[in-house]
Amino acid sequence: MKLARVAVPVPLAKAFSYEVPEAMLAELRPGARVLCDFGRRKIIGVVLGVDDGPPPAGITPKPLRALVDPTPVLPEELLGFLVQVADYYFAPIGEVLRLALPALERGKVDAMKAQGELLDTSTLARQRRVAEPTELVAEATALTEEPGKLRGQAREILAVLRASGPAPVARLEERYTNARAATKRLAELGLVTLGARAKASGPAFAERIARDQAPELVPAQAEAVARITAALEPGASERAFLLFGVTGSGKTEVYLHAIEACLERGRGALVMVPEIALTPQLVERYRARFGDEVAVVHSGLSDRARHAMWKRLAAGELRVAIGARSALFAPVPALGLVVVDEEHDPSFKQEEGVRYHARDMALLRAHRAGAAVVLGSATPSLESAQLARRGKLAMLRLPERANQRATLPEVRIVDLKRIGPGPTGDKRISLPLHRALEQTLAQGEQAIIFLNRRGHSPTVVCTACGTVETCRGCSVSLTFHKLRGHSVVRCHYCGYEDELYTRCSACGASALELEGLGTEKLEETLAEAFPSARIARRDRDVAEGAKAEAILNRMKRHEIDFLVGTQMVTKGHDLPKVTLVGVVNADAALGMPDFRAAERSFQLLVQVAGRAGRHERKGQVLIQTKSPEHAAVVYSAKHDVEGFLEVELRDRAEVGYPPFSRLVLLRIDAIDPELAERAATQLAQAARATAAVRAGAVEVLGPAPAPLTKLRGRTRFRVMLRATERPPLRATVTALGPALESLDRRVRAIVDVDPQAML
C-alpha cells in the first residue's frame, strides 16, 4: 500500500496518512494539492511525501479523492523549508502551509467547485481558477533568421529578446514605436513566440517606471558587492553577511548590485523589508533597475494580485521578490540571494498564528537553498552582532554616507530636568527645539518631529479620586482621540472605542482631565506655535497604505514643512530637505518591562536621527530626555553603534538573556483568572518535572502574570523556559506536549519560540 502524508489546514501539528489510489500513483508528487476526506468534511491538503505501507497501528487510511494539481504548487526547496519552520516553532504544518500559499491557491472545496475546478469528488477539471489580467509577451526561439529577411526595429527587438529574455510587448512599445507589428512579423518567421501571461498588478505597478543607470559605487560599497558576488559562486567559503552601514550609506545600492550579479548567474533573489509602507518606494527603485522582473509580495495586496505574483514567480517568469515578512515564503526560482533590510526591526517577528521570525528563517532558507544571505542595518540587533562576533556572519562595513557631501547630523541632548519649555509653554516643546524649528522654517527646510505615541492624550484621569480610565477588556489606559469630528477614547490593543466620558467611572465626579502627549496633540501644539508652517502627521491613525505614501510624496515635493510621526517616520525614507529631527520624548520606551527596551530605544533614536542631513544640507538632531546619562541616549548622540553594542552585550551576558541564552515563552490565558492561573501553574510544574530541567540544563521562570495582565477580556500568565543551548530547550517543550493537550478547553496556551514581545 502506498500512503501519502498530507498536511491539512487545521490547527493540528501532525500530518495525516491517506491511501494513494492506483490511478494517482504516476502523477502524485510532494507539494501537490489533493482533495481528501477529513471527518465529515472534504478539504484540500498538500502532499508532504509518499511512503510504502503499512499504515499506523489502529488506523485504516481513507483513499485520496482527487489530485488537484498536475504539477506541485510548492517546489521541493520551499516545501522542505516549510516543514522545518513548522518543526522549529512547534507549529501545525497545515498552518505553516497557509503562509506560503495565496488564498486563491489554497482554495476551498465549495469555491473550487463553483469555479469549475472540481466537477465532483473524483474528477478534476483543468481550468483557470481566476480571471487574471494578462499581457502579451514575446520570447525569442532558437531558430536562426534568414539573411535579408529582417530590417529596422524587428532586427533590434530580436537582439534585445535574445540578450535579455522574454519581454512584454507593451514594454517594447515604450522603446520601439513599431514594436507590436515587428513582433508579429518575427512570430510569422518563427523567430519569436507570442503568448499571454498573468500581468503584475497592484498599486506598485500602476505606473511605468523609467529605467535608471547604476551610480558609481564608493570603495566600501564596491568591496561589499565584491564579497557578496563571490558568495554566489559554487563552493564559496562565506555565504552569510551582516551589512553594517550608517544611515544613508547606500545599503540599497549594494543590494541592487548584488541582485544584478545573482540574476546574471541565472538565479533568483528575495528582498524583505520590515513594513508594507516601505515597499512602494522600494519597488519603484527596483523596477527602475530590473524592469518588470520584480514581484511584490505582502499581505496588503488583494488575493488576486498576490495570486498573480505567486504564479509568475513559481513559473520562473519573475525572479526578484520584494515584500514584508510574508515574502519569506515566496516561490523564488533557483534562489541565489536573500536580503533582509533593517534586520533589527521587531516587525520581522510574527506575533499571531505561527510565531516565526522572518530574519532567523531567512538564514535557514538561504542555507537550505545554497544561497547567499545579507542582513542589513545601521543598528544591528544584538543577535546578529553576536553571530558576527562568533564568525557565523561575515561583517561588511559602510562607515560613511554614500553622498560624500553629506555627513552625519550633529546631535544635541536636551535635558528636560534642566531646560524649560519654549514660547508654547508646553514643557515637551523645549526652548532649544522651538528655536531650531523656527530656524528650519526660516531657511525653507524641513523637520521631522518624532513621538512614538499616537492619539491626542494617552491618559484620561479623574482629579477627584485619581482613577485612570482603562479599557474594559484590557489592563491599559484609554487614549483620547479626536476622530471624525468628535472626541473618543480608544484602546490601542483591542480597538475598543467609546465617546469621551463626562464622569469618572469610579466616583462619578465630573472632574476628568487629559494628561500626556500624543501625535495628535503635538500636531495641534505646533500648528498654534507656527501658524505659517505646513504641518502633517504620519501615524497609523491617518497613514495606512496609499495614504502613507501620499504623505511622503508631499514631503518630497516640499508641500510639508514639519512632519509629526511615530516610528513610521524613522526608517527607509530619503528626504533631501529634512535638516532637523526632534525627538520629543526619548524616555518613552526605556521604562518598558522588556530586557530589549534599551536596545529598541537606541535603534529608534539612531534610525530617526538618520533622516536628517542625508544630502548636501547640514543636519541636526535634538533628543529631549529626562535620562541624559542612559547608554541608549549617550551612544546614539555620538553615532557610536558599536560602543552601544559592546555595553549592551556585556549587560545581557551578565543577566543571561539573549543572545547568550535561548528562550521559549509559554503564554497562557483564559476568561476566568483562576482558571488561567491554575493552568499556568500546571504547566510550570510539568516543565520542572522534565529531564532537562531536573538536570539543570533548562531553567523555568514563573508562572507569573504577564505585564499586560488582561487583553481582550482574557487574563494572561507566562511561564518562561531558558537555556544556554537549544537542544535541551526543545526537548523540554516536546516533553510538555501531553501537559499542553490536557489543559482545560477554556484555556489557550501558546508556545512562542524566541519571543520578541514580552508584554
Structure description:
The chain has 759 residues and is of the alpha/beta class. It folds into five domains: 2-114, PriA, 3(prime) DNA-binding domain (GIY-YIG endonuclease, 3-Layer(aba) Sandwich), CATH 3.40.1440; 134-198, Winged helix-like DNA-binding domain superfamily/Winged helix DNA-binding domain (Arc Repressor Mutant, subunit A); 219-398, P-loop containing nucleotide triphosphate hydrolases (Rossmann fold), CATH 3.40.50.300; 410-457 and 516-650, Rossmann fold; 662-753, Alpha-Beta Plaits, CATH 3.30.70. The chain is built from 23 helices and 30 strands. A seven-stranded parallel sheet has the order 11-12-10-13-14-9-15, with helices on both faces. α11 links the parallel β11 (294-297) and β12. The two termini are 50 Å apart.
